[in-house]
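From the shared-data thread, chain only:
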Amino acid sequence: MVDFRHIFGIVTASLRATVVPMFVLWVVAVALAVAYYTVPVFAAALEPVLRWQKESGWIAAAANRMFFYGILPGVFQVAIPSLRPRLLWATIAAQGLWSAFVGIGVDFFYRGLSFVFGDGRDFLTLAEKTFANQFVWTALLIAPANAMFFFWLSRDFSFRRSREEWPDDFAASAYLPNLLANWAVWIPVNFAVFAFPLPLQVQLSGAVGAFWTIMCLQIGRRTK
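Structure, as tokens:
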């Protein structure tokens, strides 16, 4: 039987640990989208990023995710004792490599969304892309993969500990908290991200989501 109180406890505890950066993320995502279409200087400043993504493709996406989802959260982990894992530097390296791999997948998936739904900025197009991203890509692939990876990472890379501590209700105690937290954070952000031109979407989603790795670590650590 699914213990929804336990799931809710994991999600709320993880959100509480990152509540400030979460709200900052929402504000930044919306502010960037508004500024891009209303402040010509800001749009011009992002042109080099747009060209880099167009020219480098998945390499630029991997580098973006490695920095924003690996190295930058690592700075927070170094600076804030409550977020610091026991194997600090190994954890930072592992989350950087994992995020780079995911970034490559995100780049190809975003291109697929553009092919299927087009590049319109109307509400329906943004909603279709957000739905596909959160309820297909995230729910079926990213959330379960993240749940397993960060569970293992929070056990100090020990397959033995992971095997011994693997909960019988892993789907309920690790996958669902990861998925619900993802929806709470990323559904609003996706609307802003998908409003940008395609080459900027993978770059901006990385830039505004640096704290997400910390959130996943918190969930992995709290999964009993």
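The chain has eleven helices and no strands.
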